[in-house]
Amino acid sequence: MKIKAVLFDLDNTLVDFVEMKRKCCEQAARAMVDSGLDMKLEDACDKLHKTYWEVGIESDTAFTEFLKRTIGKVDDKILAAAINAYLRTKNVLLEPYPNVISTLTKLTKKGIVIGIVTDAPRLKAWQRLNAMKIHNLFDIVITPDDAGGLKTSQLPFKHVVKKLKMKPNEILFVGDSIERDMKGAKKMGMITALAKYSSNEKADPKIVDFVLSDIKEILHIIER
Questions:
Q1: Which of 40, 142, 150, 187 is the most buried (most CB within 10 A)?
Q2: Which residues have C-beta within 8 Å of that of residue 169, sequence separation ≥ 6?
Q3: In CATH, what class is 17-93?
Q4: CA–CA dist 209, 224 (Å, integer)
Q5: What pTM was estimated for this model as a whole?
Q6: Topology of domain 5-16+97-223, CATH
Q7: Which one, of 123, 125, 95, lies nearest residue 115 by Cα?
């Protein structure tokens, strides 16, 4: 069966989201300490990062929750410094993995439909795509806001197949997580490729059809 579409997870498949978040938290913590937060920098970094994972990695309230937990109140001077440092760092670090742009461009030239299926909220997903200057390369972008659920529910996979009006086995899905990406796509009947360049997960051959050490290897799969 000929592959007609390639769909990608976003975070840790097209961009190193975890590393970006870690460094952004470090700079935000440093800015808070410089603005008067009475904590050692290492402790502030560690607690801020933990707060993010506890309240939600996409949360907009992590800084305020961190300050409530550490000093018992929200100090706007410290909060403003943290937000500004975080945003400055994020804008610098939001760069796609090597060969992402060239691979997407070549897929488009081959007439392959390309899209995103992500668990990130719609606005945040588009912000990241825009910051990386790849927002115009995709034919379709599906988020939980569009599909009514996360990828583990299979709703986004069902939604995108319906939107594309293709058979599932005409679609290649690329992601970094066995649980969140590969299982749902495989159950849907899609061809699956694990982004090993960003994942340490073991590829189960019953779930993963291809393992990518570099995103450009998708081109070889398409040609084959």
A1: 142
A2: 1, 189, 190, 191
A3: mainly alpha
A4: 13
A5: 0.92
A6: Rossmann fold (3.40.50)
A7: 125
